[in-house]
């Protein structure tokens, strides 16, 4: 049986089993374990005591340990059912239907309504989403990926050359990686040739954009736990800051792309490929603008976690370096997998299922918010031996220890999983291999770095490195 067919059959078996399960199950939604809270305040105090939603992933992890792999809790304005066992997570994806729906931050939805904004894939639903997603799948996930790799290579090669000239990385690692991965998106949109020819001007324009994109995440976080409709109606400063950061980022991106097209031509990258699919300029603009929001923080933070781990574990860094030229080696790939297991930048994945469903033996009404606790699953000793240790070799096929592949899903699963997965994997692995090949990376931080939520998972403090040129 072909691999695709086998996966299809397995997926359907899970789906059928989980539906069948439901008929046997008598447990009601109200019986889903839930923490005790105070009248009116609910469990808000417990969350505040844990450090508010900055440490939401740790808070939820603690709840799972207390209440089990499925529990229900009201956090701020919403009630969610939190799920952390891999089988249930697979069954959720199997039941998500033709048009999977995930949560969009309330502030972003209100902003789009207020400003009548057409947005990209992440914000779309129903048929519009599926039609666009099919086009993007064909371009970013299927067939010949060499153009995408070339676009990433052009940027990473330039970055390494600059690094060799200027010596150091480290003091502002976060903004340097951020800038590079924003440049990769521009290179993907306009094509590698255009990027190489107009690198200077592209770098200047991206530099302006970087701050405004990052500000969107920061200002959204500050709206945390507020009813955003009220924040808007009352004209709260926090809402105004968010609104202007989003306007700046969106109009800044559009302006940047217009200017670059004038200065550098239309190129032969993703934008031109979308034009060939007869999409209108407005629609293309909406789709690509949101790629900057989806692609830069996710890859820049993952890169930071990855260098943090290899700088902290010099033996792993040496092993990586020694296996770099070996085409049979999967150590580099496994280092990325292991990084994302411990530091999934999207530690929660959400779905609203279109019909009443059965999860972990409980009947879940349709349109309930389901939150899959990817962070907890990846750090659970039931699925990984020594789960808190960074061990890329655990992912080797011949590894005899416990490793549950489906318990680490950093890019999600199913038809709404990350459309940029291949690009992300390629650029992160290429960047790490180039850094390791040319430099010995040492960690200057002395304190353990924690994961904090800045909408996605980021390091709690800047990672400082010393790079020593090799050879
Ligand atoms: C380490 C890097 C990355 C991680 C861990 C990551 C993770 C994810 C996850 C978990 C989702 C699914 C959200 C859901 O199901 O609700 C997602 C969606 C998405 N990602 Fe990524 N991502 C990464 C990089 C990228 C890159 C480089 C791009 C750009 C090409 C990108 C573009 C998108 C888009 C457009 C969506 C929305 C897809 C849809 O709604 O159909 N991501 N990502």
Structure characterization notes:
This protein has one domain (about 55-65, about 95-340, about 365-470): Cytochrome p450, CATH 1.10.630.10. About 55% of the residues lie in helices and about 10% in strands. The chain has 18 helices and ten strands. Strands 1-2-6-3 form a four-stranded mixed beta sheet, sandwiched between helices. It has a two-stranded antiparallel ribbon with strand order 4-5. A hairpin with a 2-residue loop joins strand 4 (about 355-360) and strand 5 (about 360-365). Helix 1 (about 5-25) crosses helix 4 and helix 8 runs antiparallel to helix 14 (about 280-310). Mean pLDDT is about 90; it is low at about 5-20. Protoporphyrin IX containing FE (HEM) binds near residues 102, 133, 295, 298 and 299.
């Amino acid at each position: 049986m072909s691999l695709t067919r086998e996966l299809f059959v397995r997926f359907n078996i899970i789906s059928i089993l989980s539906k069948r399960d439901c008929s046997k199950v008598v447990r009601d939604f109200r019986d889903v374990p839930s923490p005790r809270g105070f009248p009116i305040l609910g469990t808000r105090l417990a969350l505040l005591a844990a450090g508010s939603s900055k440490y939401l992933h740790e808070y939820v992890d603690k709840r799972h340990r207390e209440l089990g792999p499925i529990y229900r809790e009201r956090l701020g304005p919403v009630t969610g059912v939190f799920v952390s066992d891999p089988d249930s997570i697979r069954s959720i994806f199997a039941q998500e239907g033709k048009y999977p729906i995930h949560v969009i931050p309330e502030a972003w939805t209100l902003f789009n309504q207020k400003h009548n904004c057409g947005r990209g894939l992440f914000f779309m639903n129903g048929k519009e989403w599926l039609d666009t997603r099919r086009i993007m799948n064909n371009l970013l996930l299927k067939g010949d990926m060499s153009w995408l790799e070339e676009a990433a290579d052009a940027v990473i090669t330039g970055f390494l050359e600059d690094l060799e000239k200027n010596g150091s990385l480290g003091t502002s690692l976060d903004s340097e990686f951020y800038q590079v991965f924003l440049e990769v998106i521009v290179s993907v949109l306009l094509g590698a040739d255009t990027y190489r020819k107009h690198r200077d001007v592209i770098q200047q324009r991206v530099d302006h954009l970087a701050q405004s994109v990052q500000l969107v995440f920061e200002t959204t976080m500050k709206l945390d736990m507020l009813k955003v409709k009220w924040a808007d109606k009352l004209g709260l400063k926090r809402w105004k800051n968010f609104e202007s950061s989003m306007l700046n980022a969106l109009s800044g991106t559009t302006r940047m792309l217009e200017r670059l097209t004038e200065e550098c031509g239309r190129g032969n990258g993703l934008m031109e490929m979308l034009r060939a699919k007869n999409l209108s300029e407005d629609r293309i603009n909406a789709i690509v603008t949101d790629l900057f929001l989806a692609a830069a923080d996710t890859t820049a933070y993952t890169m930071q976690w990855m260098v943090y781990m290899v700088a902290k574990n010099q033996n792993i860094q040496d092993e990586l370096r020694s296996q770099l030229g070996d085409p049979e080696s999967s150590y580099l790939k496994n280092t990325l997998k292991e990084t994302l297991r411990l530091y999934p930048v999207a530690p929660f994945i959400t779905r609203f299922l279109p019909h009443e469903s059965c999860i972990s033996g409980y009947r879940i009404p349709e349109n309930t918010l389901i939150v899959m606790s990817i962070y907890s699953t990846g750090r659970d000793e039931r699925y990984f031996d020594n789960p808190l240790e960074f061990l890329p070799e655990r992912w080797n096929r011949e590894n005899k220890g416990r490793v549950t592949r489906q318990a680490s899903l950093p890019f999600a699963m199913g038809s709404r999983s990350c459309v940029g997965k291949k690009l992300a994997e390629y650029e992160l692995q290429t960047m790490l291999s180039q850094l390791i090949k040319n430099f010995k990376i040492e960690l200057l931080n002395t304190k353990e770095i924690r994961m904090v939520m800045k909408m996605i998972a980021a390091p709690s403090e800047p990672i400082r490195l010393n790079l020593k040129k090799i050879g």
